[in-house]
Design a protein that fits this description.
Strand order of the largest sheet of chain B: 1-2-3
Oligomer: heterodimer
Number of strands of chain B: 6
CATH architecture of chain A: Up-down Bundle
CATH class of chain B: Alpha Beta
Number of domains of chain A: 1
Number of strands of chain A: 0
Structural class of chain B: alpha/beta
Largest sheet of chain B: 3 strands, mixed
CATH superfamily of chain B: CBS-domain
Order of helices and strands of chain A: HHHHHHH
Radius of gyration of chain A: 18 Å
Number of helices of chain B: 5
Strand content of chain A: under 5%
Order of helices and strands of chain B: HEHEEHEHEEH
Number of domains of chain B: 1
CATH topology of chain A: Methane Monooxygenase Hydroxylase, Chain G, domain 1
Structural class of chain A: mainly alpha
Amino acid sequence: MFLKKIFSQDNKEQKVIEGIRRHIKLLCTVCDTFKTAFENHDLKLMREVFDIEREGDSIRREIISDIYQGAFLPYIRPDLCVFVELVDRVFDLIEDTAFRYLDVEIPEEIKGECCRVAFLNTRISEMLLITFEAMLKGDDLREKTLAVRIYEKKIDDIKFVLIKNVHKIPISDFWQGKSLSELISGLTAISDIIEDASDHLQIINVSMR
Amino acid sequence: MKLQEFMTTKIELVDAEAYLYDAIEKMVDRRIRSLVVRFPGKNVHSYGVITARDIVFKVLAKGGNPKNIRISDVASKPLACIDKDADFREAAKIMEDTNIARIFVCEEEKIVGVVSLIDIMDAALIMRARGEDVS
């Protein structure tokens, strides 16, 4: 509510809010691009993840600079910056995971579970956008953050199955094994950071009351 | 929301002719409350299910020895199955009507997942958070 009141009065705040919205929407796009590329084994599309990550970087720089040029009261600025940095960490992690994907052949035994995680990552990123929009409207975020936690828990459950299954796969080359392990770690850690970002939105929301 | 979005794909199997104690060990080790029981045959109708509830009420509470009882004597058959493209409301209705706590998700005679009451609750909560109609 507080955010809504502020940004309706000042262009600087409006610009920051619009920037954060673009940043999270781009996060949904990158998750969806990753998922589609993974499902269809489309290497060209997977490389687009790198371009989207660069675009995300530039939006992040813009937002942080706008914040420190005077948008919002000083006490709220660090929290907003932490949120933006958390979203940016997701971009970085997706980029690393996409890079690993290009580097390694995914064994059939774990392909299905990996696809499910990629799909759930798109859903949890959409939920982060919904949470952000709800905060702007001044709605209670409890239900939204719970939905994020549910998605995170589901991905965590799949992670344990993946780890168990990957132990059964013979690895002939150390670097292939390392890349595969890092791909699984990256893919399943995306939701952890989105959960942190969603919790941070809740902190921002509460601190502004 | 379709079932395949929130089903659990981790399914553990036991043979119908194994002893109940084997099933108990598997449940404890894997921290799960049900196992799919494999009877002779290759399609979905040759599977059954055994739950912690079956073991407690049908055997342990009656003083039965799980080391002497075959899983097939306690397991329920056939499995309650639903298509993976079905909606979570359909699953909830079947579970309510038949008084079961989990339903198996099938695709072309193959079990691809399981949906429990907690998964149904998760799905409903996510839909609420998304502003979609849950009823």
